[in-house]
Design a protein that fits this description.
One of its GO terms (cellular component) is plasma membrane. Belongs to the binding-protein-dependent transport system permease family. It is a multi-pass membrane protein. By secondary structure, the chain is mainly α. It has a domain of 165 residues: MetI-like fold (Orthogonal Bundle). Helices cover 71% and strands 6% of the residues. It has 15 helices and 4 strands. The strands form 2 sheets. Strands 1-4 form a two-stranded antiparallel ribbon. The longest helix is centred in the middle third of the chain and has 32 residues. It is globular. The two termini are 23 Å apart. The model has no long low-confidence stretch (mean pLDDT 87).
Length: 340
């Protein structure tokens, strides 16, 4: 392809990436270094028939003038990143000095907002991602073995969790785990505890959020692996059968190596999706038990006081976290490509 043709070919996608990816990231990073201006407070003398009193009021004109002169706010440098709501270096150092051991230090760390959200986010990502890949793979293997007459309905029902809107799907599970729901009642019967409540237990709430995450994301992995199974060399499978290989050995030594590039692809997508978990926490009303980095950003932007700088700093730390998580997979993919 000629250079001019290549330029016009990539220009639209380049402009879109700059407009919707690069520029927003630059804007968020720059905003994270500025904090909002404080309101200008003045003392006003108010005199009446019973004497004079001093009252405090906000000078709206002076405040508006400062904000107009510096719309980003006042420069704070890295102060927002190191405050108690984010990396909290001072609080972490104090917790390390005053803790009686690693378990006590961990509990102190989980009392800090950012590390509490980071702890759940990493746990959710570390558990949901491999379970999603495994479940999607085994469902694909099972569906691929179904009779042709039943494959259509089986594939449809296997895709239902992904078709259902995330908010609706999580609300359905939320109602099911209620004490009056079928799952909540079943858990009470199994544990012989009529007072058991998933919504009141942090551990059970974490488990339910992860169960929902696997249930909702597994169909995506299933679709990818099922498509990959259609490209497996049948001659190789037949040769393995002639040599006496069992079904498990054919899957292990023929199918799995063939699908490894797809495993990398699914892992990349799931790592990014799971690290920004948000909808289940809102639908399950689980913020008292579990908060993620995305929920922390939402919390900063909600309410009457919008903490734009705090949300921007959390967003930057989230981007850095995703980059760190993806780096091993990307490095491995690059090395495999370089060998070829």
């Amino acid at each position: 392809m000629k250079h001019s043709s290549f330029f016009w070919f990539v220009l639209p996608s380049t402009l879109l990436m700059l407009a919707f990816i690069a520029f927003p990231i630059v804007s968020v990073v720059s905003q994270s270094f500025y904090s909002a201006h404080e309101q200008v407070v003045v003392q006003v003398k108010n005199c009446g028939p019973f004497g004079c009193t001093m009252e405090t009021s906000v000078d709206q004109e002076a405040t508006a003038a400062i904000r107009e002169a510096e719309p980003l706010g006042k420069f704070a440098g890295l102060d927002i990143y190191t405050d108690r709501n984010h990396l909290a270096f001072g609080e972490v150092a104090a917790a390390w000095v005053n803790s009686d051991g690693l378990p006590d230090f961990g509990r102190s760390l989980m009392n800090l907002p950012f590390y509490k959200a980071l702890g759940f986010t990493l746990t959710y990502t570390a558990i949901v991602t491999p379970l999603t890949i495994l479940l999607g793979f085994f469902v694909a293997i099972a569906v691929n073995s179904v009779a042709k007459a039943l494959k259509g309905p089986t594939i449809f029902f296997s895709l239902l969790p992904m078709i259902v809107t995330p908010l609706v799907g999580s609300l359905i599970l939320f109602w099911m785990v209620d004490a009056r729901g079928i799952l909540g009642t079943g858990l009470q019967w199994l544990t012989d505890d009529p007072n058991l409540s998933v919504k009141a237990s942090t551990g059970l709430m974490w488990i339910m959020l992860m169960v929902y995450g696997v249930w909702h994301a597994a169909p995506f992995a299933f679709v990818v692996f099922y498509a990959g199974l259609q490209t497996v060399n049948t001659d190789t499978l037949e040769s393995a059968m002639v040599d006496g290989a069992t079904r498990w050995e054919r899957i292990r030594f023929v199918v799995v190596p063939h699908l490894l590039p797809l495993v990398t692809f699914v892992a990349l997508i799931q790592l990014m999706d799971n690290f920004r978990v948000f909808e289940p926490i809102v639908s399950f009303q689980a913020s008292a038990h579990a908060t993620s980095l995305s929920y922390a950003i939402y919390n900063d932007l909600g309410g009457e006081t919008r903490l734009l700088s705090s949300a921007a700093a959390t967003s930057v730390l989230t981007i850095i976290g995703i980059a760190i998580l993806l780096s091993p997979v990307l490095v491995r993919t690059w090395r495999d490509f370089d060998r070829k």
